[in-house]
Amino acid sequence: MPLDAAQAHYLSGVMRQKPGDDVMVFNGRDGEWSARIDQAGKRGGSLTIGQQTAPQRDPPDLWLLFAPIKKARTDFIVEKAAELGCARILPVQSDFTNSERIRQDRLQAHAVEAAEQCGGTFVPAVADLQPLSRLLAGWDPARQILWADEAMAGPAQTLAGLLPGAWAILIGPEGGFSESERVILRGLPFVHPVSLGPRILRADTAAVAAIALWQAALGD
Ligand code: SAM
């Protein structure tokens, strides 16, 4: 199997592997396989694929919708969402979102690295930035949204009573949601507001906390 320059660099430069070494590989669809490195250099390389070592493991049906914040903290959100088992990651532009564009390829690469480091066989797709209003207008109501909003301030809610099914978590930007967004979100039958406790959390902390609570209630 051919390796492109980035994959070959990762194996030889980052992981310090050399020809003849055995590695584990996955493509996000077919589980994990053993492989032997034939060559790995600056311009690319190749592997010989051996036996399958693990079946494909797909995460539970949870998406993360979040408003991008500063670069390093957006990277953190994508990395942790991938580690914690989100199936899709959708950056959204809300009224108070500062960023007008994201580097989708960079964020997707973070998701791949996160899946590699936690031994997963699944890589969540990271979508391009899109307006929250447009996403909600075309939303399939069969997927319920847990809307984390500090305006709900109260004790952190247990999510133990949630029904299994397709879910998404929505996290706002540094400035939170605008009042007009709150009015719209409150009026949507598939949106459920949730408190993560009496403290106002940073958006990256809120994303990790909400995903962990959901996984504790409905995850694998
Ligand atoms: N200014 C801070 C920052 O730099 O990140 C706080 C941002 S907080 C407004 C960002 C988002 O985190 C909110 O829109 C909400 O989705 C979520 N959040 C923070 N604290 C929360 C809480 N106690 N309960 C529910 N959601 C919360």
Give the arrangement of secondary structure elements.
Layout: E1 2-3, H1 5-14, E2 22-26, E3 32-41, E4 44-54, E5 62-66, H2 71-83, E6 88-93, H3 104-117, E7 125-126, E8 130-131, H4 132-137, E9 144-148, E10 167-171, H5 179-186, E11 191-194, H6 203-218
Parallel strand pairs: 5-6, 5-10, 6-7, 6-8, 9-10, 9-11
Antiparallel strand pairs: 1-4, 2-3, 3-4
Descriptive account of the structure:
With 220 residues, this protein is an alpha/beta fold. It has two domains: 2-55, Hypothetical PUA domain-like, domain 1 (Ribosomal Protein L25, Chain P, Beta Barrel); 62-218, Alpha/beta knot. It has helices at residues 5-14, 71-83, 104-117, 132-137, 179-186, 203-218; strands at 2-3, 22-26, 32-41, 44-54, 62-66, 88-93, 125-126, 130-131, 144-148, 167-171, 191-194. The strands form two sheets. Strands 5, 6, 7, 8, 9, 10 and 11 form a seven-stranded parallel β-sheet that branches. The longest helix is centred in the C-terminal third of the chain and has 16 residues, at 203-218. The radius of gyration is 19 Å and the shape is elongated. It starts with a strand and ends with a helix. The mean pLDDT is 92. The site of S-adenosylmethionine has 18 residues, from helix 6.
